[in-house]
């Protein structure tokens, strides 16, 4: 996407932020900052310890995974969080004098957390209030057994728990396990793409044709695609 071709409106707004029971109109994403007394403390969770098998069974049934063992598959997992909840995690050390807006700053720090866990995410989709983080393999992989596939899924869930962000949860919306062709690559932990797009994460989809774009200084620009 060439940003010079976007039809930005001169007067911009952001809809979807609740404040005092009504809709707030924002012109800058940094206006979503709320006072935080304490910094985010890294406290691993154990939310998925007892339910990972149930979640995997849903994927097993949905994608008929019994038919995909020993065959090349495209694999991606996703997790979601409300974008303002992600800001709350990182804003204690954020200042408006920094070279980033709170959106960029939060995603930059979240990427660092994921990298510390050995699983940097591959892509970001921002729809309405939700940020979807996606972990996608570089090329189709072959799983030799259902247990191996379950172990990979479990390591993803454990990563979410290990990061310790309360509102970050597994999402089936952009999770995919689908048959592919022409691959004999077996699984290894470094199979995931790494996200390195300079500005895709700043694009927020409001409707089928309306979008917001968060500029470097945090200004919110609306355009139609």
In words, what does this structure look like?
The chain has 4 helices and 10 strands. By secondary structure, the protein is α+β, with helices and mostly antiparallel strands. Strands 3, 4, 5, 6, 7, 8, 9 and 10 form an 8-stranded mixed beta sheet that branches. A two-stranded antiparallel sheet has the order 1-2. The protein is globular and about 50 Å long. It has helices at 52-63, 83-90, 102-116, 146-163, and strands at residues 17-19, 22-24, 72-82, 123-127, 130-136, 141-142, 169-179, 203-205, 210-214, 220-224.
List keywords for this structure.
single chain, 225 residues, alpha+beta, 8-stranded mixed beta sheet, two-stranded antiparallel sheet, 10 strands, 24% helix, disordered N terminus
Helices, by number, come to: 4
CA-to-CA gap between the ends? 11 Å
Structural class: alpha+beta
Helix % is 10-25%
Shape: globular
pLDDT averaged residue by residue: 85
The biggest beta sheet reads: 8 strands, mixed
Q: C-alpha Rg, in Å?
A: 19 Å
> What is the percentage of strand-forming residues?
15-25%
Short précis:
The protein has 225 residues and is α+β, with helices and mostly antiparallel strands. It has 4 helices and 10 strands.
Write the layout of secondary structure elements.
Blueprint (H helix, E strand, L loop, with lengths): L16 E3 L2 E3 L27 H12 L8 E11 H8 L11 H15 L6 E5 L2 E7 L4 E2 L3 H18 L5 E11 L23 E3 L4 E5 L5 E5 L1
Helix pairs in contact: 2-3
